[in-house]
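Justification of computing resources. Each target in the renewal requires a structure prediction run like the one illustrated here; the chain below, 207 residues long, is used simply to show the kind of job we budget for.
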Amino acid sequence: MRFVCAFFAFSICTIFFTKVSAQDTKIILNNYIKFRTRQLDTLYNYLVQSRKSDWLAKIPSPTYSTRTGFGLSFSLQSIASYRQTKQRNQIELERLKFQMQSELDKEIQQLEIQIDQLFADADKLKIAIKNFETYENQIHDIEQGKYQNNQSTLKEWLTYKKSYEERKNNLQAERTAIINKLSAMATKTKSPEEFQGLIKIFTNLTF
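Resulting structure tokens:
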């Protein structure tokens, strides 16, 4: 039995700054679907084989006697029990197959939302870092120059510098967090290549 995800409404739009396209997202989700499908197939096939063992316990028992030789011990009760067990197991397996398929579809939907949010967070952080590099560093140089030229007091300079360092440290912590999240998602979805470029972008950002 093969599990195939029925959910293919990939609606994530292109994210300009992080260079992640809807096609990349589709590849990531397809990689995860293949991985989970193999897991579910293995589990389902194992359960099928286990149920077959249960059916064997209901099959009429072989017998042997010196007068009649080998044979099978049939009874209406054993035959009815075997048929009922086999039919019940088939129904339960079909129900299980449907449940597993339904859960997989829900899982993929949730995963798409998570990937969408992760890329949006990465995009937002990249813009914030770029703004910090462009504007905050310029303001820092201006404030430092004002202090050096006696246009501001030491207290004003130290207050600004403390605020500047706090914002910088927060961005560095967020960058580390987003790299960890991207790496974790790459591992979860079995898609290292699709996340490699984005992880490299954040790893190489210096500010």
